[in-house]
Design brief:
By secondary structure, the chain is mostly helical. 76% of the residues lie in helices and 0% in strands. The protein is built from four helices and no strands.
Length: 160
C-alpha cells in the first residue's frame, strides 16, 4: 500500500493535470463534433469547411479552459503570445483532422455522416496527443516561481 501512496504522491500533479486537460478536451470535442455535424449535415457545407469552422470555435473554448483551469499554475507569458502559439499549434493539430476527413471523403469516397464522424474521431485523437505535448512545451510554460494557492493575508485581520 505504501508503494501506491508514493506513486500517487509522485504523479498526482500529472494525474490532475491530465484529468483537467481531458475534461476540457471532452467538452471541446463535443463542441467540435456538434458544429462539424451542424455545418455539414444541417447547413450543407463541405466536410473540410465544416471541420475548419468547428475547430475555430472549439479551439477558442479549449484555450480559455486550459489557460484558466488546466494550466493556471503555469507561467503566464502574455495573452497574445499564448493565444497565437495555441492557435498555431492547433492549426498543426487540425491537419490531423483535415487529413483524416479528406482521406476518408476524397480517397475512399465515403462522404456519409458516420464515415466523416469516425474519421473526425481519429483525427481528434491524433491531434490531442500532439496538443498536450506541445502546450506543455511551448504555450503553458513551467512557472519560474511557485504560484500561491491563495493570496497571503486574505481574510485575516491585521492589527496595527
Amino acid at each position: 500500500m505504501e508503494v501506491v501512496k508514493r506513486l500517487y504522491e509522485r504523479f498526482s500533479s500529472l494525474v490532475h493535470e491530465l484529468a483537467k486537460f481531458g475534461s476540457i478536451g471532452a467538452v471541446a470535442f463535443v463542441i467540435d463534433t456538434g458544429l462539424l455535424n451542424f455545418c455539414h449535415v444541417v447547413i450543407g457545407l463541405g466536410p473540410l469547411t465544416s471541420k475548419l469552422a468547428a475547430t475555430v470555435v472549439s479551439t477558442t473554448f479549449a484555450y480559455l479552459g486550459n489557460r484558466y483551469w488546466t494550466f493556471r499554475h503555469r507561467e503566464q507569458t502574455g495573452l497574445g503570445r499564448e493565444y497565437f502559439l495555441f492557435f498555431l499549434l492547433n492549426g498543426i493539430a487540425l491537419l490531423f483532422g483535415i487529413l483524416a476527413i479528406g482521406f476518408t471523403t476524397y480517397t475512399l469516397g465515403l462522404n456519409d455522416t458516420l464515415s466523416v464522424n469516425i474519421s473526425n474521431i481519429v483525427g481528434v485523437g491524433l491531434g490531442t496527443l500532439f496538443r498536450y505535448w506541445s502546450y506543455k512545451k511551448w504555450v503553458f510554460l513551467e512557472a519560474t516561481e511557485p504560484i500561491p494557492v491563495e493570496l497571503p493575508g486574505q481574510g485575516v485581520r491585521q492589527d496595527r
